[in-house]
Amino acid sequence: MKALGRVIASAAAAVMLIQCGCSGKRIVHSQKEQTVISLSWWGNDPRTEYTLKAVQIFQELNPDIKVNCNYSEWSGYEARNRIRMVSDTEADVMQINVGWLDDFSEDGKGYYDLSKVSDKIDLSNFSENTLKYGTRNNILNAIPIAMNTETVYINKTVYEAHGLDIPQTWDDLFRAADILSKDGIYPLCGPSKAIWLFSIAYAEQKTGKSFLDDKGKIAFSSDEFQVMIDFYVEMVERRVIPKIEDFKKVKVENGTCAGAVAWVSDAINYFGSSIKAGNEVVAANYTAFTPEDSGAGWYEKPATLYAISKNTTHPEESALLLDFLLNNKEMALLQGVEKGIPISKSAQEYLDEEGLLSGLQYEASVVMDSNTKLREMSPLLEDTDLINDFNDVANLVLFDKATSEEAAQQLFEMIGEEFEMT
Q: What is the domain-level CATH number for residue 6?
């Protein structure tokens, strides 16, 4: 909650969401009474374009409902929507991050109970295991759109040009670095969160200890943190990856990085240019000490979810829109796999019928779905303060300001002051 307070306090100056109209009332349009509801989401221009088209189709199918749309890029959306959630001014239907369920609905009462409108939402498209991600205190708050996990993507064209196979083990990556670095190429790269989770996977495999205990508290000691720090420092020094601060997506696009650790939903965002340039990019298995251990220490989560505001005055109309966004054929075809492979059975069938279940993002989803070792990701694993603290102490080692043992102890003490630990 301390981190949440900081976000809310700083969000007052955040970029305003693009908005049109208002919500929660009835208007007369063309001599016909309409119910007005609102929808909010985040994303890039293509996402906005297809979502607006989908909303237009929904309104044509439901002429008694008008949908006002609020949208922006992620940073503006997150900051603004956190303010809206605590001030009860959120949209009727909203795209949410899974971490918001713990932030705003730990007791299950922060969002509308979707079981109350199950006659409007076809929940048969989703397994109980899937719906648990959107459930808090046995109350269904949200429905996942697609699943997500950090994935290892490899530019196979570059690797093969250097006589290298697709890496499966940690040692494979270091061997690749010995060869690729001669041409100024990194085997991998990734943003701070991706490399943090990558390092956790390594440490969990090496020590046999989970980062979190069964109660969701941090279970790593300074010894396990030292394993993470040593691993990250070695990757940087042996040129497996650039320093986190030096990462830029353009390094993937221009071939400086022959691979990346990134979400399933970011596959095309990272490698679209490389694929268009004629490179073959593949979703590799999750790195491990042995191929048989692939997936151990790696975590999955919903990419995004849809929820309905607990304050909505039009739950049935909102539920109709939510069902359309998840299960409708027109929406499925417009969205494709942009948010990841849809979980909805109906949406998957529509895409399969049209031959749209293909491409790098689909391949990454197949790797994810076929791995039985992936575990449910806790929002704590993505905590910005944790990640920044790790980066800071790792830099102390990289710049010879501390030993890895000293840095690990400092990290352990810093985390102990901010978070609950075993």
A: 3.40.190.10
CB burial of 288-313 (b: ≥16 within 10 Å; e: otherwise) equals beeeebbbbbbbbbbbbbbbbbbebe
Which long-range contacts does 274-280 make (Cβ < 8 Å, 24+ apart)? 274/155, 275/360, 278/157, 279/155, 279/156, 279/157, 279/158, 280/155, 280/156, 280/157
Average pLDDT per run of 10 along the chain, which is 422 residues long? 44 41 42 88 93 98 97 89 93 95 95 98 96 97 97 98 98 98 98 98 98 96 98 98 96 96 92 95 98 97 96 98 98 92 96 94 93 94 95 98 98 94 90
Angstrom distance (rounded) from CA 224 to CA 210: 10
Residue 22's pLDDT is what?
36
Range of the domain at 200: 148-299+376-418
> Do 119 and 213 lie in a common domain?
no
Overall number of domains in the chain: 2
**Residue 231 CA from chain centroid, whole number:** 24
Question: What is the per-residue pLDDT across 175-197, written as a single tens digit (0 to 9) for each?
Answer: 999 999 999 999 999 999 999 99
Q: Is 278 left (phi over 0), alpha (psi -120 to 50) or beta?
A: left
pLDDT for 17 equals: 42
What does pTM read for this prediction?
0.85
Asked if residue 337 and residue 411 are part of one domain, the reply reads no
How far, in Å, CA of 325 to CA of 333, rounded?
Answer: 11
- The token duo for 402 is 């501390």
Are residues 165 and 60 both part of a single domain?
no
Same domain assignment for residues 251 and 386: yes
Backbone angles phi, psi at 159, to 5 degrees: -60, -45
Cβ neighbourhood burial of 106 (10 Å; 0-12, 13-18, 19+): exposed
Considering the domain architecture, whether residues 293 and 396 belong to the same structural domain is answered as: yes
For residues 160 and 224, state if they share a domain.
yes
What six digits make up the tokens of 351?
A: 């895409």
Q: DSSP label at 381?
A: G
Nearest to 239 by CA among 265, 259, 222: 259
Q: Is residue 211 located within the same domain as residue 283?
A: yes
